[in-house]
């Protein structure tokens, strides 16, 4: 998905990359901070001009999520994952089921909300330092990779990313369910969402320097141009999904310093196309539209207008990035 790189893009890319290095935005500076809690990946973002947040995901080891009752283990609490015709794609209604089936209790996804302010699947609390805050996500490990996500392992990839080793590692990392339901569902308080956070973390860490910088620039564009208009409907999560797709689709040889601006424009073009159609597939479960939660109606129309304006600006939008 490439065409000829405009000549002036190369010189601008070199300067832009050097500026990002100077202010601390490079792969070497480990923009993505990684911690491990209970053998579970944690990621957060820090850097000049960005609020210093920490995201912590705690794996609840006393509960096992299963797709069939036969997978239940007597020594554990077992959560049966149920996906019916009324459940939105990417969300699940979960029953907490004992091995002897003496009772079945629908587990509400609000059970951890007493520790702080709720934001999506996370509970947010402020530390003593006003510039540092933490989002805590409680996650339950699934016994196996969801069937609708098997396409990710079989997908035909032309440019060698993720690598075969990374793909195989994803099987070992597995997936989790986190406490968030679809905002437009009548049973939102009962629905849970699949999370592939550990694999996402490992894939993000594998980004080469230019890929990481495009990711950072997308987040800056979001903060400067998109968030003031549509709020947090367009999130950092969307930026991450875009980068996974673009890293798959753009050949490895193009992710170099002098092509930084070109790769950014390619990403914005794809973002604009998805916003126009109203469908952006989640990278691990392609039938899940990540726009169907918040980027709909007027919000989506405004996003399309913003992206159209950015693409028609001949990259002068870079001058206004904060």
From TrEMBL:
Residues annotated as domain Mab-21-like HhH/H2TH-like: 214-292
Organism domain of life: Eukaryota
Pfam families membership: Mab-21_C
Coiled-coil portions: none
Protein name: Mab-21-like HhH/H2TH-like domain-containing protein
Organism: Sinanodonta woodiana
């Amino acid at each position: 998905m490439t065409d000829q790189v405009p000549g002036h893009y190369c010189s601008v890319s070199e300067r832009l990359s050097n500026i990002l290095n100077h202010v601390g935005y490079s792969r070497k500076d480990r923009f993505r901070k990684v911690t491990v809690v209970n053998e579970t990946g944690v990621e957060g973002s820090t850097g000049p001009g960005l609020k210093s947040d920490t995201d912590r995901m705690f794996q609840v080891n006393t509960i096992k999520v299963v797709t069939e009752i036969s997978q239940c283990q007597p020594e554990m609490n077992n959560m049966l994952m149920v996906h019916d015709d009324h459940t939105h794609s990417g969300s699940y209604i979960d029953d907490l089921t004992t091995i002897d089936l003496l009772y079945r209790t629908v587990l509400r996804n609000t059970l951890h909300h007493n520790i702080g302010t709720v934001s999506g699947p996370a509970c947010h609390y402020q530390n003593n330092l006003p510039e540092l805050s933490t989002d805590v996500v409680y996650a339950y490990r699934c016994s196996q990779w969801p069937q609708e996500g098997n396409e990710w392992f079989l997908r035909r990839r032309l440019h060698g990313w993720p690598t075969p080793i990374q793909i195989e590692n994803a099987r070992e990392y597995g997936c989790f369910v986190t406490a968030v339901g679809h905002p437009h569902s009548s049973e939102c308080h009962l629905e849970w969402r699949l999370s592939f956070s550990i694999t996402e973390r490992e894939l993000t860490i594998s980004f080469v320097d230019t890929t990481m910088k495009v990711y950072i620039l997308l987040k800056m564009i979001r903060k400067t141009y998109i968030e003031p208009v549509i709020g947090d409907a367009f999130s950092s999560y969307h930026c991450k999904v875009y980068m996974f797709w673009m890293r798959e689709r753009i050949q490895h040889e193009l992710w170099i310093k002098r092509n930084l601006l070109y790769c950014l424009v390619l990403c914005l073009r794809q973002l604009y196309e998805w916003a126009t159609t109203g469908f952006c597939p989640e990278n691990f479960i392609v039938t899940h539209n990540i726009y169907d939660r918040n980027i709909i109606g007027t919000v989506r129309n405004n996003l399309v207008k913003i992206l159209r304006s950015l693409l028609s600006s001949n990259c002068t939008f870079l001058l206004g990035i904060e």
